[in-house]
């Protein structure tokens, strides 16, 4: 791969993981955030593509403040819906593939079975509506060249996330109350980065060849937030951290401005069948994130 992968977004969890993975694999990659690349500004996007002449465009930029989106819906839609439309148009004009990251929040969370890509979107929140609108906008603009990866519960050593919060709270409290009736898979940003670079390599070698569309991409297995917390704190004990007791509560016991899906299980078989990609077990990702957080803490960066 001689021309770089261009990533919209520079400081988010997946963007950071992509930058680390690209260095490790020797893949040319440029990650840009504002003001160098503003996903809400067509001229900014065009200038970035002209400057870097990428082989592929990846959208890792997103409005992720789920609760704030309830009162700032227009701002969420600007980034999460209009951004993908403009990026997809730019990729189409450049004749390159476009990979867009989406969310389990596009679904309503009903039932107990994993969702596959044929399930209709039915978001419960403003954030979910903005992500669903972004998926539709990208496909409308460039259906033949867009790959959408819907994922869940992303975490990384470089970012604010549930795992980092649990480690902090466990040092401050004897008991932490954690929701146990929302089910899904925490997904390491490193898993997504590896999947994106594998897709990029396949597109470089073979083209999209009819493989565009929506794919679910989450780490393997299923759990709930309370079990994730227990797993994280057990890992933390190996580094000398205190482990608080986890008290399981229901979603109703922890109301939030934005409703959360109770069922975020994603069926990822289409990703495996189409691209040959299977993400690792969620426990592996959680352990890696804990190790990364503790390493940064020891280095004085966390």
Automatic annotation (TrEMBL):
Family membership noted in the UniProt record: Belongs to the dTDP-4-dehydrorhamnose reductase family.
Biological role: Catalyzes the reduction of dTDP-6-deoxy-L-lyxo-4-hexulose to yield dTDP-L-rhamnose.
Name the UniProt record assigns to this protein: dTDP-4-dehydrorhamnose reductase
Swiss-Prot/TrEMBL keywords: NADP, Oxidoreductase
Pathway: Carbohydrate biosynthesis; dTDP-L-rhamnose biosynthesis
GO annotation, biological process: dTDP-rhamnose biosynthetic process
CDD domains, per database record: dTDP_HR_like_SDR_e
Cofactors demanded by this protein: Mg(2+)
Domain RmlD-like substrate binding: 5-291
One Pfam family this sequence matches: RmlD_sub_bind
Signal peptide start and end residues: none
Cofactor annotation comment: Binds 1 Mg(2+) ion per monomer.
Gene Ontology molecular function: dTDP-4-dehydrorhamnose reductase activity
Membrane-traversing stretches: none
Recorded catalytic activity of this chain's protein: dTDP-beta-L-rhamnose + NADP(+) = dTDP-4-dehydro-beta-L-rhamnose + NADPH + H(+)
Enzyme Commission number(s) from the entry: 1.1.1.133
